[in-house]
Amino acid sequence: MERLLKTGQWKDLPMRPGFGSFMHPTEDKLMLIKQLGVDEIILNMYRNNLIDTNFDSLPLPGDHQWEYKDLLMLRKTVENAGIRFLALENMPFSFYDKIMMGQPGREEQLKHVQETIANMGAAGIPVLGYGWTPTGVWRSSTTYPIRGGAQSMSIDLDDFKRAPLSHGRVFSEDEMWDYYQYFLEGVLPVAEEAGVTLALHPNDPPVPSLAGVPQLFRSFEAYKKGMSMVESENHGLQYCLGNFSAMGENLDEVTEYFAKQDKLVYVHFQTISNSLVNNTKLNEVFVDMPGYYDPVAMLKKLKDVGYKGMIMPGHVPKIIGDVSWEERGRAFTIGYIKGIIASLNHDN
């Protein structure tokens, strides 16, 4: 089946701003997003304390898979507010934790993931973003002070050295790659039949290992390997610029390489102070502060390579008056992104 991302309302869209990093499409959130001039969102189904996710409930029920009727209703809720629903980002770990770690019961989990992907396609949701991060996302702090006392997320790798083993033993790179190949071989044929595109997020932070578990997707070369293990047009990147910056990669080179393969599904646009190459510490910064990359040059590069997907603020600093979703910080970031895109379009 043709990829949903290439048909219907998604066909011929330009490079554009969007919002994500929240779970519940409440009336207030959807209204705010529309008022800010944004017409597209991603909903994040990963329970953690780093972004606006509700620990008490998910907008999609189910401990093992998502059902068609629930997916359809969620899409309609978003679309009734005049907003496109691009992707579901991050399945609950209970959907595929045994698959990631090669544990008994992974065959049953794989069947449920396959059904979830098929249901997403039938419900008209074109993208499933996922992470291969059995140890989760790690931070040292979410209150690191930056400009004017704004609070950002920070990492100090020394803080993680004494972490206990998360899964009872130390795992090898080879076995983790084997588990990943098992996953790809099981889900990509289903995604192709359903028209759903899968988008892989980097490990966060992108370091060799955490709590005894190798972090596979920590480099440009690892991404090349991951994208080539099972060839499919329905597999690509959640292109998280914050994590690729932390890797110390040449972002122009990465962007050009994966754009040529049509692997850039959508972009997490967040800026950080520095890479983790020869450094143990970093912190996230405002989009207009000096950081690892120049936001204007980065957006120009994306436009130059013909990227026509969504660009969303990833993590943003929390400023005075912000609540759970950093609404003010996100409004500032999206305005900055929109201004750059408008300028680039004007120049042409």
TrEMBL record:
Record family assignment: Belongs to the mannonate dehydratase family.
This chain's protein is named mannonate dehydratase
Q: Which SUPFAM superfamilies match?
A: Xylose isomerase-like
Q: One of this protein's Pfam families, by short name?
A: UxuA
Superkingdom is Bacteria
- Give the matching Gene3D superfamilies: Divalent-metal-dependent TIM barrel enzymes
Reaction(s) catalysed by this chain's protein: D-mannonate = 2-dehydro-3-deoxy-D-gluconate + H2O
| Enzyme Commission designation | 4.2.1.8
What InterPro entries does the record point to? Man_deHydtase, Xyl_isomerase-like_sf
Q: Which GO terms describe its molecular function?
A: ferrous iron binding; manganese ion binding; mannonate dehydratase activity
- Asked if the keyword Lyase belongs to this entry, the reply reads yes
Taxonomic lineage per UniProt?
Answer: Bacteria, Pseudomonadati, Bacteroidota, Flavobacteriia, Flavobacteriales
Q: Which UniProt keywords apply?
A: Iron, Lyase, Manganese
Q: Does the keyword Lyase apply?
A: yes
